[in-house]
Amino acid sequence: MTICESLYTQYDTRYVIDERTIMSVRHALLALLDEGPKYGLQLREEFESSTGEVWPLNVGQVYTTLSRLERDGLVECENAVDDDRQRDYRITDQGRIELSDWLRTPPDFSLPPRDELVIKVLVATRMSGVNVHEIIQVHRRAMVELMQQWTRLKEDESELDLGFALAVDAELFRLDSVVRWLDVADGRLKRASLESKDKSIPTMPKYRRRVGL
Amino acid sequence: MSVLELLKVGKSYGEGASEVHALSDVDLSVDRGALVAVMGPSGSGKSTLLTIAGSLEEPTSGDVVVGGNSLLTMSRDDRARLRRRSIGYVFQDFNLLAGLTAVENVSLPLELDGISQKAAHGAGMTALEELGLLDRANRYPDELSGGERQRVAIARAVVGEHQLLLADEPSGALDSVNGEGVMRMILAACHRGVAAVVVTHDAQLASWADRVVFLRDGRVADQTMAPPSPESLLDPAAPTDLEH
Question: Per-residue pLDDT for A18 more than 90?
């Protein structure tokens, strides 16, 4: 296995786990039920609407989550019938406390995520015969093309839903931060190359340990 | 139809060992109604490209064609006339004249071009109205907010029959919301048929463009492809796998 394959596999596993913790359907459903009792299908529609339809959700996910919330005492079913579609859910007092705590708990950003792009660029700096600036530009262009797509979605202000606009802005700022990092990396590598073509890239042992390289 | 064409444009400063190539063999074509963004690090030649495109500076090699007219064969006076009639500029620091009101700033290029004061004033008011600044028309620049000043600068750039808008870091020091507002106005001008080139280091501003050109060391290093429809980002057929 090459170094690239090894790093990618590690990254991929970790990334999928991180992604799941970013958006909690569980708490989003509690927030919707905080407005009043609702059916599963209604919850799915309102979830998608409140996230500007940026995060589609299948109805199976809704019912699985609701049954877990019910198991944990955070929601209760008003009419215990067998057909999921007929069940009317309401939030419990414990559910309200859970929701309130969740809203005020900052996400854990203390550890840097295992970022595939960072790893690709770091690997490229160590490979002979690879122009790291060309690699950086490939990714910069891809990020900007994605940003163009997201920006098109908010072009028509008259049809811009507030929740959707906030979600699109968040995605644009996330992609923008990637482009900025690529710009800084590009400049830093250019300066390093000018200063000493023989020296290897300076390393940061503590950081390297934290990101698991 | 191309409103602006840069054909193998090169620009050098200095001579001999101290010669610096700011631009080399740059080809760029901008159609009517198109918005093109130019990105690149400091010193990549972005601003030089813009000043040459706007005939504020002459290229060392190559040619610039604006509205079908080659600048290479044009007299100095003809170039000045073309600048006044066809090209509008938006600068980072607005460049409004402090002693003139908003509408006077906007109508000045038309008056300089020989249009009557009354007609120029009318065109200036129309441009300000389109940018929501009618109630600010008689204010002086120091009585306007940063966002309003930049809107006046954009009104001045698109007033009359300008067919080409050139903007250098047009959001300047404005915050993100006002920066987005500036790009919306430039895009609206493009929808009316103006061709625009925006130089910026800001990817969020550049993402409003139809095409993004990346400059590096004075050369066009890359450019974006036409992106797929944005609806592909919201494909409901692929529900996100989320925590339950």
Answer: no
The enclosing H or E element of B214 equals: strand B211-216
Q: What is the chain B residue with the closest CA to A28? A: B244
Residue B138 has a pLDDT of: 96
Range of the domain at B101: 2-10+22-226
Using a CB–CB cutoff of 8 Å, tell me whether B227 touches chain A.
yes
Quick one: closest CA in B to A171, which residue?
B204
The total number of structural domains in chain B stands at: 1
ipTM: 0.86
| CB burial string B128-150: b at 16+ within 10 A, e below | bebbebeebbebbbeebeebbbb
pLDDT at A6 over 50: no
Q: What CATH number should be reported for the domain holding residue B204?
A: 3.40.50.300
Separation CA B216–CA A179 (nearest Å): 15
Answer yes or no: is B235 within a domain: no
* Cβ-based interface (< 8 Å): residues of A facing B: 16, 19-21, 23-26, 53-58, 61, 64-65, 68, 133, 137, 140-141, 143-153, 155, 157, 172-173, 175-176, 179-180, 183, 186-187
A155 Cβ contact list (under 8 Å, min separation 6): B187
Judge whether B68 is closer than 8 Å to chain A, CB to CB: no
pLDDT in tens, A167-210: 899 999 999 999 999 999 999 999 998 886 655 555 555 555 55
Tell me what the pLDDT averaged over chain B comes to.
Answer: 89
Interface check B240 vs A, CB under 8 A: yes
